[in-house]
Specification:
- Pfam families: MaoC_dehydratas.
- Belongs to the enoyl-CoA hydratase/isomerase family.
- GO terms for molecular function: fatty acid synthase activity.
- It comes from Streptomyces griseoviridis.
- This protein is an alpha+beta fold.
- The protein has a domain of 99 residues: Roll (Thiol Ester Dehydrase, Chain A), CATH 3.10.129.
- 23% of the residues lie in helices and 36% in strands.
- It is built from 3 helices and 5 strands.
- A 5-stranded antiparallel beta sheet has the order 1-3-4-5-2.
- Strand 4 and strand 5 form a beta hairpin.
- The chain is elongated.
Length: 142
């Protein structure tokens, strides 16, 4: 499969469609099972608070994975992502209620590189705070 986006049709500054991702305690428990990361800060409110957190927090890799979905949805091909990195700046706090939390993600093409690749800069926030810093992906386009 190849990217449905053509390199020649993309300009620096092109904005990708923004997305909002819900995060619930149930999703965190399911992610823990899939990833093998059963750290109680991701599911046990009492423990999370005992170690100084405001509440249960989402896994960093969960947050990172949700954010890159903006890019993979845009390209239509998860394999188009050739490089991806972030810094974790703030946790996604997930209260134990029906709403949970949300991760809001926007992205734009920041540079056109060699070999039909572009650098996409992502911005991810939750509860009005930036949760990922230096979030960048290199993507090979068609």
């Amino acid at each position: 499969m190849t990217s449905k986006i053509a390199y020649d049709d993309v300009e620096v500054g092109t904005e990708l469609p923004a997305r909002t991702f819900p995060v619930t305690r149930d999703a965190l428990v399911r992610y823990a099972g899939a990833s093998g990361d059963f750290n109680p800060i991701h599911w046990n409110e009492k423990f999370a608070k005992e170690v100084g957190l405001p509440d249960v927090i989402a896994h960093g890799m969960f947050t990172m994975a949700e954010a890159i979905r903006v890019v993979t949805d845009w390209t239509g091909d998860p394999g188009a992502v050739v490089e991806y990195g972030v810094r974790f700046t703030k946790p996604v706090v997930v209260p134990n209620d029906d709403r949970g939390a949300t991760i809001e993600v926007s992205a734009k093409v920041a540079a056109k590189l060699d070999d039909r690749t572009v650098r996409v800069d992502l911005t991810a926030t939750s509860a009005g705070q930036k949760v990922l810093g230096m979030s960048r992906a290199v993507v090979r386009l068609g």
